[in-house]
Specification:
With 131 residues, the chain is an alpha+beta fold. It contains 5 helices and 5 strands. It has a 5-stranded mixed β-sheet. A hairpin with a 6-residue loop joins strand 4 and strand 5. The protein is globular and about 40 Å long. The two termini are 12 Å apart. 29% of the residues are buried.
Length: 131
Amino acid sequence: MEVSVEFSAKLEAGIEQYGFKIEPLQADLEAYFSGIKKPHYLGKDAPFERPDGIESAEVHHLHVFIKGISCPHTWEKSKTSDSYIVYTYGYMNEDAHLVMAIIKDDAHKKCRNHSTMRDFKRIAEEFREKC
């Protein structure tokens, strides 16, 4: 199957506030998820492990370098930042991806908020049920 990337409606409407344009970001993420190439501004990719139950919803975070916010030294050393792209993928079609959010700064702290994580889990479960 061909890799696809869609964005939550709320994120798509305001994506430029994060310094991205929808079409180039979508193309870069499709290339990344298909294994073709990893753009220079995408870093470490990992599933969330907290709170309990989030793992079954396959909510992941992809570190992203945002100029003027991310620390260049940390980025060069470990490809980590305090900015995330939060996404999930389909249950039946693992090539279908949904980008739920971009957290521009303070991502580690913001993702400790149980309400935020419950929202991500709910959105991911709804997407995974249809894909």
